Backbone:
């Protein structure tokens, strides 16, 4: 395997990348194509342009083929990961019925209460161990109308892409669990739950494990892209699943996958499902090779990115380096928001939503871009600390440190504030953790590594992480108390 490359296709909720990588003596990783596909209104819903996504993927694959040929190396396999919960509907002729609806669409606003009239909330959690989010697949499918009548197969986004690449219909386990339709104990679709919600289990494909070899690319695609004899392997097709797989986690360390969303959690060997876990709305998502991702979703840098978009529309330049330099100059704390307030999910104006929440909590209106940025980042750090403390209480294990992965790992101000707020050592620097995990699972499937530990050890030896030690102060303690008052105010409303 020493002369082979792997291709990782990493799709986020709005942008995607295609990488070429090898895992020989050195860790080689090269981004070959980056593309964007913001959801747009179409036929009454916010949708993804699937043809564009697929076209961009093929263009990226052609570039990977050319690059590997230039380097005189062969490509062994391709792996696809993406965001969770969204899906496509395939008819009996293998055609996509309509463009997939985006999870930020408003159609599921009242879906939870309607589902709970049929199946109690507690019963759903006891079966699946998955946190309740308005946009989970269970609620999206419940709102479907006539489209399901024409549907032969429901495929989650990465499975839909793999179907177009190979002709095989499967549901990869790590992503399937996010639907809130998989039984936490069996790892298969919960047939009783599906029956109660009048969802036809025959429309859901067989669940497969991360690392499953799906076979070769379709002949017509392979010939068109000069990728003959290249296999498609399912990594953890959920991007967070791949990100956690790629982290060289130390014993008793937690992780934060920091990006549009922040996923804060620990790796377990079996699901943790009880009343306390349900009370705090934690989730047990499938991981790779027998692991469970016990975590909680935090709204993440979506809040800041939305503000930056508005500022740019107003003609205000907000490059990250300048923004964080200005934030670091501000002494003390300007105020706090509760990041997981649902008003931040998809507001018309994020700046307006922040101002509205600050007004509700009787805090001073923010005047500058730097002040707003600081409030967002400080609030995220304290939210992380609160979630991590809850994890310690729920699992009974003390967390020794936290590894931050993803694009947010480049935000040194947030990393240091997180260390301060959590009172724990932070390590950051594996910004391409998702791509790394995608490649590692492909490599394990190909026989490059015997197991996950060996693969992670390889990453540990080849990636330099930056350490942030916690800094203690009386101002920080007071700020933490102030933040927690706001957090409790909003949590008490749920």
Residues:
């Amino acid at each position: 395997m020493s002369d082979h490359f792997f291709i990782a296709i990493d799709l986020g909720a709005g942008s995607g990348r295609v990488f070429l990588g090898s895992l020989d003596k050195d860790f080689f990783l090269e981004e070959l194509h980056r593309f964007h596909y913001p959801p747009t209104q179409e036929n009454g819903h916010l949708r993804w342009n699937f043809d564009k996504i697929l076209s961009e993927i093929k263009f990226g694959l052609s570039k990977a083929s050319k690059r590997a040929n230039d380097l005189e190396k062969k490509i062994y396999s391709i792996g696809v990961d993406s965001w969770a919960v969204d899906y496509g509907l395939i008819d009996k002729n293998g055609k996509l019925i309509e463009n997939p609806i985006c999870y930020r669409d408003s159609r599921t606003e009242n879906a939870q209460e309607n589902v709970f009239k049929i199946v109690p909330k507690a019963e759903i959690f006891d079966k699946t161990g998955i946190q309740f989010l308005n946009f989970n697949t269970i609620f999206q499918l419940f709102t479907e109308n006539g489209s399901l009548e024409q549907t032969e197969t429901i495929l989650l986004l990465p499975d839909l892409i793999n179907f177009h690449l190979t002709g095989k219909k499967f549901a990869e386990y790590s992503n399937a669990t996010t639907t809130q339709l998989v039984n936490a104990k069996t790892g298969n679709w919960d047939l009783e739950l599906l029956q109660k919600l009048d969802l036809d289990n025959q429309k859901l494909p067989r669940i497969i494990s991360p690392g499953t070899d799906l076979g070769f690319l379709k002949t017509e695609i392979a010939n068109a892209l000069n990728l003959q004899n290249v296999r498609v392997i399912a990594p953890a097709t959920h991007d967070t699943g791949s990100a956690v797989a790629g982290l060289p986690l130390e014993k008793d360390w937690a992780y934060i996958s920091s990006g549009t969303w922040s996923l804060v959690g620990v790796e377990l060997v079996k699901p943790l499902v009880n009343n306390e876990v349900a009370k705090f709305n934690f989730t047990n998502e499938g991981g790779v090779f027998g692991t469970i991702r016990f975590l909680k979703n935090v709204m993440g840098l979506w809040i800041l990115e939305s503000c930056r978009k508005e500022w740019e529309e107003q003609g205000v330049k907000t490059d990250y380096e300048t923004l964080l330099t200005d934030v670091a100059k501000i002494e003390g704390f300007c105020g706090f928001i509760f990041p997981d307030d649902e008003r931040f999910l998809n507001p018309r104006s994020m700046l307006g939503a922040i101002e509205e929440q600050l007004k509700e909590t009787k805090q001073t209106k923010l005047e500058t871009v730097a002040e707003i940025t600081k409030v967002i980042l400080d609030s995220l750090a304290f939210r992380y600390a609160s979630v991590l403390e809850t994890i310690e209480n729920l699992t009974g294990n003390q967390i020794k440190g936290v590894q931050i992965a993803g694009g947010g790992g480049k935000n040194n101000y947030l990393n240091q504030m997180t260390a301060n707020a959590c009172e724990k050592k932070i390590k950051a620097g594996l910004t391409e953790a998702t791509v790394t995990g995608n490649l590692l699972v492909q490599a394990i499937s190909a026989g490059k590594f015997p197991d996950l530990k060996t693969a992670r050890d390889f990453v540990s030896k080849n990636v330099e992480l930056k350490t942030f030690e916690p800094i203690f102060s009386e101002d920080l303690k007071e700020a933490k108390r102030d933040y927690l008052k706001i957090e409790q105010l909003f949590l008490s409303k749920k």
